[in-house]
Design goal:
The protein is mainly alpha-helical. It contains six helices and no strands. Pfam families: EMC6.
Length: about 130
Amino acid sequence: MASISKRKEESHLLNGSVKQSTWSKAFCSNAVWEEKDEFLDVIYWLRQIIAVILGLVWGVAPLKGFLGIAIFCVINAGLLYVYFSSFQQIDEEEYGGMWELTKEGFMTSFALFLVVWIIFYTALHFD
C-alpha cells in the first residue's frame, strides 16, 4: 500500500501536473525528454522489439544467408532513424550525433534477431 502512494507521489511534478510515462512519450510525436537516458532506453527497447518481430518473420519465411542479415540491418537502422529524426524530431547533437543514436543497442538487437531467426527457421524448415 505504501509503494502505491509513493509511486503516485513520484508521478506528480512540482507544479502539480502528472508526469507522462516513458512509453506514452515514446508514441507521442515531438515528446519532451527530460533525461537523455530515458530516450536512449526507448531506442534500445524499440530495437529489441524490432529484432524479435523480424527474427520471427525471417524464420517463418525461409529466408537465409547474408541477404537476411543485410535486410535486417537496413530495416533496423532505417526505422529507428526515421523514428528519432522525423517522428520525435530530437536534436541529434544533444545525444552525440546521428551515429550514436543509430548504433544505440544495435549489437544486442542483432544477437536477439539471430537467436529468434535461427530458432524459428530450425523449428519450421529443418528436415
